[in-house]
Amino acid sequence: MEEEEKKICENGRCEVGVREREKAMKLRFSDGESRPEFKTEIFLFGKTDCPVCGQAKEIVNKIEGVKFTYFDLDSLDGLSKAAFYNAFEIPVTIFFKNGREVRRWEKTAPPFDDLLKLLPTE
Which of 15, 24, 88, 104 is 20 to 30 A away from residue 34, measured at CA? Predict the structure, then answer.
């Protein structure tokens, strides 16, 4: 891997390298296998060496009563899911209700209050 590919977070901006993105796009799911199954669910796409991804993970972990799934883009599975959801501008947080995407945050951690507003009031 070239030196440029290794630099994931630079100048406060995190992103996936071009080669990783191309590899993941070849693996993109077409059968809907990775669709959320719970009424309310949050997907977070990130990398371990991305500081903003860590902030996003801390915020999402504070939300109760919602299934939370983290996809590490350093793994093949994470790249595959990112391809399916077009989630390469990390961190990417996707909020689902009844299997449908209702909100997405890219390149930033989601504000805690915004997440709370999306929760069911049952």
Answer: 15
